[in-house]
Amino acid sequence: MYQLRGHHIFCMVGYQGVGYSKEYADNMTAVHNKLQQQPQKLVQLISGPDMLCAKFPCYQENHCHEKRIYAQDAAILDFLGLQVGQIVSWATIEQRLKIYAKPNSIQTLCGHCTWRKFGYCEQGFKHLLDGHGLQDVKFSP
Length: 141
Hints:
Number of helices: 6
Mean pLDDT: 93
Shape: globular
Largest sheet: 3 strands, mixed
Helix content: 40-55%
């Protein structure tokens, strides 16, 4: 079972193979690919740093404990009707995204995110909302 914090749900949808470091990108790619290939994989929703945060490079400023990140986690879980501690399949998360997400959801819920400038998230959400699962990772870490 994977453990993910709220905002990393959106990160998985937009992920394209790049990250804060090679180790971080390798880890995120592995998680992304497993969820893409096995959407019935169980995910426990947690509060605070998760298995992706665990690989955040120690030489960069870490935002995993910032209040705004916790607030974003809570907002995304609330938006999807999910709760901390809940265990659901990735397929269930995708179903909720398809029901509740709109093209402007990223702007509303992820307004401060520095990754938005690349357009990966919008592409990922379009792919998902068009009836597909997670998009293929374009770049190798």
